[in-house]
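Case 141 in the screening queue. Each case pairs one protein sequence with one candidate compound; here the compound is flavin mononucleotide. For every case the pipeline is the same: read the inputs, emit a complex structure as C-alpha cells, and attach any notable structural observations.

Predict complex for case 141.
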Amino acid sequence: MKKISVIYWSSGGNVEVLAENIKAGAEHLGAEVLIKHVHYAKVEDVTKADAVAFGSPSMDNNRIEQEEMASFLKNFKELNMENKPTVLFGSYGWDEGQFMVDWEKLMIEYGFNIVGKLAVQESPKEEEIKKAKALGELLGK
Ligand SMILES: Cc1cc2nc3c(=O)[nH]c(=O)nc-3n(C[C@H](O)[C@H](O)[C@H](O)COP(=O)(O)O)c2cc1C
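Case 141 output:
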C-alpha cells in the first residue's frame, strides 16, 4: 500500500479544504494517507512517505507561510529527497499564483520532484475541488 503524507498550513480553512480533498483522492485509490497541519509534522512524515503533498496560502508578501511551513521545508535542504513525487497546493488572495512559481523553484532546489500543482484564489470552487481529488489520485496511484 502506498504511503502518502499531506502536510499543510492554513488559518482560514481554504488550504485545509484542498488538503482534505487530496487525501480523499489518494484514499480512493487505496493509499494510506497521513494528514497533518505542519505545526505537528515531523521530518519522518516526509522521508518515510512514498509521495507527499504540501499546502500553504500566499502570505508574508506573496510567499508561502514563513514561520512554520518555510522553516519545516528547510529541513530537507540537506537531506536527499531522491526526487520524491510531490504535489504543491495552496490559495492566494491577489498574487495570481506567483507564490507557487517561486515555491516550485525552491522545492526543486531541495530535491523534490514536482508532479502537480494547484493554486486557487481564496476558497476552492467545485472544479478546483475536483482537481485536488485528481492530484490525490495521481499520488496514490
Ligand atoms: C495575514 C494574511 C496575509 C496574506 N498575505 C497575502 C499575500 O501576501 N498575497 C496574497 O496573494 N494573498 C495573501 N493573503 C490571502 C490568503 O493567501 C488567502 O486568503 C488564503 O485563501 C488563505 O488560506 P487559508 O484560508 O487556508 O488560511 C493573506 C491573508 C492573510 C490573512
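Case 141 observations:
- The mean pLDDT is 97.
- The CA atoms of residues 14 and 124 lie 7 Å apart.
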